[in-house]
Amino acid sequence: xxxxxxxxxxxxxxxxxxxxxxxxxxxxxxxxxxxxxxxxxxxxxxxxxxxxxxxxxxxxxxxxxxxxxxxxxxxxxxxxxxxxxxxxxxxxxxxxxxxxxxxxxxxxxxxxxxxxxxxxxxxxxxxxxxxxxxxxxxxxxxxxxxxxxxxxxxxxxxxxxxxxxxxxxxxxxxxxxxxxxxxxxxxxxxxxxxxxxxxxxxxxxxxxxxxxxxxxxxxxxxxxxxxxxxxxxxxxxxxxxxxxxxxxxxxxxxxxxxxxxxxxxxxxxxxxxxxxxxxxxxxxxxxxxxxxxxxxxxxxxxxxxxxxxxxxxxxxxxxxxxxxxxxxxxxxxxxxxxxxxxxxxxxxxxxxxxxxxxxxxxxxxxxxxxxxxxxxxxxxxxxxxxxxxxxxxxxxxxxxxxxxxxxxxxxxxxxxxxxxxxxxxxxxxxxxxxxxxxxxxxxxxxxxxxxxxxxxxxxxxxxxxxxxxxxxxxxxxxxxxxxxxxxxxxxxxxxxxxxxxxxxxxxxxxxxxxxxxxxxxxxxxxxxxxxxxxxxxxxxxxxxxxxxxxxxxxxxxxxxxxxxxxxxxxxxxxxxxxxxxxxxxxxxxxxxxxxxxxxxxxxxxxxxxxxxxxxxxxxxxxxx
Length: 624
What we know:
Elements: E1 3-12, E2 15-25, E3 30-34, H1 41-49, E4 56-61, E5 64-65, E6 76-79, H2 91-100, H3 106-119, H4 135-147, E7 153-157, H5 165-182, E8 185-190, H6 193-199, E9 202-207, E10 210-215, H7 217-222, H8 227-232, E11 237-243, E12 247-250, E13 253-256, E14 268-273, E15 278-281, E16 291-303, E17 306-313, E18 320-323, E19 333-340, H9 341-346, E20 354-359, E21 363-366, E22 371-376, H10 383-396, E23 399-405, H11 413-423, E24 429-435, H12 439-449, E25 454-459, H13 464-476, E26 481-486, E27 496-500, H14 505-521, E28 524-531, H15 537-552, E29 558-564, H16 567-578, E30 582-586, H17 601-605, E31 614-617
Parallel strand pairs: 3-8, 3-9, 6-7, 7-8, 22-23, 22-25, 23-24, 25-26, 27-28, 27-30, 28-29, 30-31
Antiparallel strand pairs: 1-2, 1-4, 4-5, 9-10, 11-12, 11-14, 11-18, 12-13, 14-21, 15-20, 16-17, 16-20, 17-19, 26-31
Helix pairs in contact: 2-3, 2-4, 3-4, 12-13, 14-15
């Protein structure tokens, strides 16, 4: 292998931007790293080049461990997005620079320069200054300079980001031809999917510093293994269905599969079909494939050689849509469709027109379900949290990690074994992990290793303020939500949720996650907002009606309430009136210091909750 990366880690301010990434690039292979902005792909490339220090792991180039070597001794050619040409040097001087500092003879430098300029399509322009060149020409000079010293590997960091579409297309062809001619192992970083598909022998998708999947472009597009990759590579229609002995089912619609998710018997799967897999006809009997139903065209766009449509389809019983995301408060399913211009001419459609929708090909992904992290300190006060967390996990078919943190040192085997026994049987999967870190740091380390949906913590009766301080640390440690279970909780699984929301974007996540959990528990929910003034009621009513529809779409019985007055007093009054046994609150948006705080509400509310658990929801708007 030309390039081997083993468990690379890079942290900034304690936050991992490259998180335990391993990959291999074969001799002569063009490998593409694809990811959105902030996914860690450029940092990973700079670590391979030696431009960024490695916090953990190794880099091997052609069998040499170069982790601690300076960039000049790694045998790497690097092309930057910003060209990074020396503005005061001619094209010839830029290309020859790496050779001149290595003491290469002038005649050899000139010969190599002319060879490379001809290769990149700039023959005869060696006397020009960078300012006399177009952006595309400057990037060709940067490529020639990177290749001048005959590097063993070539690294390109979004080299076409600042160029227009036509120039990017020309340069892609140039780089592919040069890479094949030189047979040099190359890693190309981009956020452009079209670019990745056209260039890659293999590609890898990065997200939040993690490598999700790697493989040939066609394989990752047609048969992804994860929801993130299915959504990231091209447009996707992704819904939660059920596997059967013959294939998969979306509500009443059955799809046969030649390959399907492993497992015997019925189980939840994610059903993927691409926009080009959708067939549209005027009548259902004209479709030679499974029929989803009759839809209405919501949007049409002309995209040159093809047409893109978005359809609105009536809800399918028992089917949850992942992508495209359903607008908040809507019950309808949205379906993305792409058609060739020939197909569009044969059956023209405009917004408002109706068409029957069939699906010609589907791919099934194993549904990951939810993952719960249960924290124990080995004492009896964790018992209630462990028992409730385990029962919720059984009902939700969630995977469980039991994290033992005694603070000064890992819990002994007997304590962990006793905690594991409290969980009982019937869990989808369980992993037991001891930690020597304090509880807040232990949770942060664990969710860095594997993210989770919900962390379950004990709230000690004797020191609830300490429990809230820990909850605040845990909330700040990842994108998960937190369930606080009082040490004295002894009731059955909660089935009457009170969801306390503020009107706005963060409140939507409160509703979304609570709905996911409530549907597994056969729980009902009351969505409450407390207003200080009556004139805000119209906006609140619209938001609550959208919230009601969003939960109802998941099969949850739900009602809404607006109360006026002091927030804590009205929440407590609603709890008593409605007999609620679990309270849901959102994490307040951070202020100027950008520090996450649970705010003044919970400390004031806790004394009046008795032994009711509290579910703390963290919305995407809450910044780390």
